[in-house]
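User: Can you predict the 3D structure for this chain?
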Amino acid sequence: MKTLSPGHSNELVINWHLTEACNYGCRYCYSRWHGGNGKELLHDAENSQALLRELYHYFSPENHATQAQLGMRWNSVRLSLAGGEPLLYEREVVRLATFAKELGFNISLISNGSRLNDTLMSELAPLLSVLGLSLDSANPDINRQIGRVNRKSQLVSLAKLAATVNDGRALNPDMRLKINTVVNALNFTDNLSETIALFNPDKWKVLRVLPAISDDLAIAKHEFAEFLARHHRFAPIISAEDNSDMVESYIMIDPHGRFFQNSSAGQGYRYSEVIPDVGAKAAFRQISWIADKFRARYAVDRSECLA
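Assistant: Here is the predicted structure, written as structure tokens:
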């Protein structure tokens, strides 16, 4: 773990990838973990709660020893629940989000939106500070080529999803919306302006496809730049991340309760030991993380920043 010059971020974000399971088959997907023992932790209520308690104890804003160790300060800590597709296990997600919120976490959820209906939204919206949706294209052919369809080749209805999201925002006006788009060889010439306008997100995170598993859909820097230029009208809400921005800059946990990190030497991941077994402090020391790169994602004077 690398810590650099002291700094301040309004919110520390921890990304727990709850499951490798997904109803989509995106060709660029990085949600492939190796070496874990036993079932995924979200299916074990006792151990998943132990993980959350340990994380909050270590990363709590009141734990000044941790802030000194990491070389930065933060006012709150947010747990981002991701996958795979976490809403394949919606009851577990609601249970974990409720427990984590009671501990003191702010909660966010990253989903492809295919399982998000009005009933589930009514449960989730009061729990969430951020809802993240992964949307790469409004073009059915592009989505099918990427693999953003289920086994029956069904696509999510963007109009219906937008209406459900609006209902959630009405239930919880403080819930912010983030769109994640992975720019790759299949969609870098696409225009998502109508889709972004439809959802009206607070933030649009645009990522150049990261060859963590393969370079099948890799694009050049100038192709990524072309995509950003095409959507310049959304510049105030766009957060663009190239490959170098992603390495050693996220705090990530895999489905088995291990910190993991993108390898700076090439494809694949590096892992810590299981957090509830050795404690968050010891486990976090086993991976590389650069505080300055994390802080670059969160300006001090922007309390609205989203991971």
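Residues 8-295 form a domain with the TIM Barrel fold (CATH 3.20.20.70). The CA atoms of residues 59 and 66 lie 7 Å apart.
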